[in-house]
Amino acid sequence: MTVIRSSLFMAWAILWSIVSAPLVVIAALALRGLWGYRFGKLWRLGIQWGVENLLGIRPKVIGLENMPLEPCVILAKHQSAWETMTLQDYVPNGAYCVFVLKKELLKVPLIGWGLAAMKMISIDRAAGKDALDQVVTQGRERLKQGFYVILFPEGTRVAPGQTKRYKPGGAYLATHVGCKVVPIAHDAGELWPRQAFLKKPGTITVSIGPAFDATGMSEAEVNRQAEAWIEAEMRRISPHRYRDAARSNA
To answer: Which of 1, 139, 154, 245 is the most buried (most CB within 10 A)?
Structure first.
């Protein structure tokens, strides 16, 4: 059944992207304003329809009340492609989100073109300090425009139970702009593994942590606080993935 579900979803995702992704580019370039984001949301909702109804994957959200009403920096665990779509549903008042991503992604046919048209924060990872300054310049502008900025501080997708070093980009943006930071933990990788064709039905737990103000903090302090909450919460929602959590629950 998992093979059938995954095959149907893949067919649907390709078909829906072929139909809707060009509309995102056209809307962003021709209509300008928020039209690219509106059509981007249409594409995303279509994909999520397939996730819920073909794959049988649904979210369970904890701590939604922790999301600030004003635009902020969101630092989230990254285990799959699922959260890149679904986390955008948890910002208030129908606001839109932008991601910090590597420039190479903008070259991916259809999806990459749509991301470029919607002016995501794209950086050259090889640029070092200049890359961080790019994040601040673009991120400050997006926040002023009312967008929430989502970053995955580990920089890449990590398997359940694993942790990579938290990179400074999101913390650097938050401290230089002076805004709130929201940590998010989830277990999407349990059902939607990295680069895996087969995806299992079930419930993904998303836990939104308490927001904290990065004003006056150093990048290291922001990362320490976000990492401490995220990794502790990962052990709570996925104790079977961590030996220390399993021992404490024994």
So the answer is: 139
Distance between start and end Cα atoms, the chain: 34
User: Sorting pLDDT into bands at 50, 70 and 90, what band is 249?
Assistant: low
Owning domain of residue 140: 58-249
**Closest to 226 (Cα-Cα) out of 163, 176, 177:** 163
Question: Does residue 188 fall inside a structural domain?
Answer: yes
For 142-162, write each residue's pLDDT tens digit.
999 999 999 999 988 999 999
Query: What's the pLDDT at 111?
Result: 66
Q: pTM of the prediction?
A: 0.90
Q: What is the pLDDT of residues 120-139, one digit of tens each?
A: 887 776 666 777 888 898 99
Name the strand (E) or helix (H) holding 46. helix 35-50
CATH at residue 75: 3.40.50
Question: Whose CA is closest to 18, among 57, 38, 47?
Answer: 47
Residue 129 in domain: yes
Q: From start to end of the chain, where are the E strands?
A: 57-62, 73-76, 97-102, 121-123, 148-151, 180-186, 202-208, 212-213
- From CA 62, how far away is CA 93, in angstroms rounded? 18
Surface-to-core class of residue 223, CB atoms within 10 Å of its CB (0-12 exposed, 13-18 middle, 19+ buried): buried
Residue with tokens 């903090």: 217
* Residue 233 structure tokens: 């919460």
Which amino acid type is present at position 95? Answer: A
Please indicate, yes or no, if residue 15 is contained in any of the structural domains.
no
Domains of the chain: total: 1
- For residue 154, give both structure tokens: 């580990």
Amino acid at the residue 198: L
